[in-house]
Amino acid sequence: MSHKNNNLFERFSDWATKFTGSSHAFIGAVLIVVVWAASGPIFNYSETWQLVINTGTTIITFLMVFLIQKAQNKDSKAIQIKLNELLAANEKASNRIVDIEDLTEKELDQLHCYYEKLADFAEKDSDIHTSHSIDAAQRNQDYKHSVFKKRHEEWLQKQQEKKES
Question: Could you report the per-residue pLDDT of 92-134, keeping only the tens digit for each?
Fold first, then answer.
C-alpha cells in the first residue's frame, strides 16, 4: 500500500502524534514548565505570568484532544480490519462477528451475554479437556487440513481440465 498519497494534514497529524508521544516532547514540556516557574520571581508572580501558562496549556490541551481522537480512530479502524481478517480466515469463526463495531449498544450487550454463557459452560467443566483442549485443537486442525486438502485437489483438477481443453 502506498503512503505517498497522504495529504498534508494526514502527514502532519501522523508526525505530531508520534512526536507528542515521544520522550523529547515530554522533556520539552517539562523544560517549558521549569522555565515558566523560574521566571515567576522576575515577573513578581503577576496575573499575566499565570495567564501565559494557563492560556498555553489550555490551547495545547484543546488541540491535543482532536489529535489524540484522530490517532485513536485510525488505530481502532486498523485493529478492526485486522480482526475482521482473522475472523474471515477462520472457518469456524462466526462471520456475524465481522463489523460488530457497527452494532447498537443493545445488540453488543446481547452478544456479550452469549459469550458470558459460553464462559460459564467452560467454567462448569471440571475436566480441562472437555473445553478448548489439546484434543479439540487437534481435531480442529485435522478438519482444517482435510478441508484445505479437498479444496486444493479441486483446484488441481480444474487446472488439469484447463490444460486439457
Answer: 777 777 778 888 999 888 888 887 877 776 676 666 555 454 5
Residue 97: which residues within 8 A CB-CB, separation 6 or more?
A: 87, 111
Q: How far is 83 from 34, CA to CA, in rounded Å?
A: 44
3-state secondary structure of 161: helix
Q: Is 45 helix (H, G, I), strand (E, B) or coil?
A: coil
Q: 93 — alpha (psi -120 to 50), left (phi > 0) or beta?
A: beta
Q: Which residue has the cell 488441481?
A: 156
CA distance readout (Å), 26 to 18, 23, 89: 12, 5, 41
Of 102, 125, 126, 100, nearest to 114 (Cα)?
100
Predicted TM-score of the model (pTM): 0.58
Q: Rounded to 5 degrees, what angle do the CA atoms 40, 45, 49 make?
A: 80
Q: How far apart are CA 71 and CA 45, in angstroms?
A: 37
